[in-house]
């Protein structure tokens, strides 16, 4: 007599999803300056390129846009940038950036847009 045993093999499917395919904060350290943070993080949307067009982020160098924004004050702009609003991600998705560094990046954009 033969007894057939059937082994059921459970398949374990694991799917790893990486989140955050936006700008990269890879090169950011606590010493990064406002301009470096702008270049590596914020410029993805704030350089007037495709992402800027899609998200309607105010582009660096767009005097009209930034003069209007600056009238709110650097502090309130910084606060919004840290919290995020609409399509502007919190801290521009830069997990490593300190609040102070975000402020420097905001100041840099304002300075470059005068
Ligand atoms: C994924 C795209 C994206 C990235 C990256 C990004 N921004 Fe923005 N940002 C936006 C958009 C879109 C707006 C306009 C939001 C609106 O007015 O609805 C905005 C608006 C702003 C404003 C205007 C705030 C105000 O008071 O209206 C500031 C300041 C700003 N961003 C700073 C930054 C800084 C600093 C960084 C980098 C650390 C950054 N952004 C990265 C998309 C982005």
Shape: globular
**Strand fraction band?**
under 5%
- What is the residue-averaged pLDDT? 85
What binds here, in terms of ligands, is: heme C
CATH structural class of the domain at 34-111: Mainly Alpha
Helix content: 40-55%
CATH fold description of the domain at 34-111: Cytochrome Bc1 Complex, Chain D, domain 2
What does the main sheet amount to?
none
Question: What Rg is obtained from the alpha carbons, in whole angstroms?
Answer: 22 Å
Please tally the helical runs, counting DSSP H or I stretches of 4 or more residues.
5
Number of strands: 0
CATH homolog superfamily of the domain at 34-111:
Cytochrome c-like domain
* CATH 2nd-level architecture of the domain at 34-111: Orthogonal Bundle
The end-to-end distance, rounded to whole angstroms, is 92 Å
Low-confidence stretches: 6-21
Give the SSE order as H and E letters.
HHHHH
Which structural class should the secondary elements be placed in?
A: mainly alpha
What does this structure look like?
The chain is mostly helical. It has a domain at 34-111: Cytochrome c-like domain (Cytochrome Bc1 Complex, Chain D, domain 2, Orthogonal Bundle), CATH 1.10.760. 44% of the residues lie in helices and 0% in strands. It is built from five helices and no strands. Helix 1 crosses helix 5 and helix 4 packs across helix 5. The longest helix is centred in the middle third of the chain and has 13 residues, at 34-46. Heme C binds next to helix 1, helix 2, helix 4 and helix 5.
